Amino acid sequence: MSATFRLVTVNTAPERAKRLIGRVVEDVKDRYTIIHVANVERIEEVKPTLERERPDVLFTASMWTPEQAKEIVLIAQELIPGIKTFSIPYGFQVEKGPDAVVEHIKENLPAILEPGRTAQL
């Protein structure tokens, strides 16, 4: 049986986040059980959402600049030591489209979720 991971996304377009993560979850369900517990639309909402949901994983979407994504990740790491994080590169969705975002996440999931693996950045 696969481990279960609780995921919080940080995305200003919550319906898109739900749709794209839903595709990822469906595509990898034979290897991982991922529960998308919440989406956060503003940086100010990250801390209270993480305190409430206590996720194992946090993804930042591509609308966040590298500086903003780093700020979000730092909040998560300070609040939940050992949380797994992944930031989709800035502008990736606009440049390459939603299908590429789904594939990018799926390609990097082993490195994100499995100890000892390295992300393909």
What does this protein structure show overall?
The chain is α/β, with parallel strands linked by helices and 121 residues long. It has one domain: Response regulator (Rossmann fold, 3-Layer(aba) Sandwich), CATH 3.40.50.2300. Helices cover 48% and strands 19% of the residues. The protein is built from five helices and four strands. The protein has a four-stranded parallel sheet with strand order 2-1-3-4, with helices on both faces. Helix 1 (14-28) crosses helix 5 (98-113). The longest helix is centred in the last third of the chain and has 16 residues, at 98-113. The mean pLDDT is 93. It comes from Wolfiporia cocos (strain MD-104). This is NmrA-like domain-containing protein.
How much beta, percentage-wise?
Answer: 15-25%
Give the rounded overall mean pLDDT. Answer: 93
The whole-angstrom Rg is: 13 Å
Name the CATH superfamily assignment. Response regulator
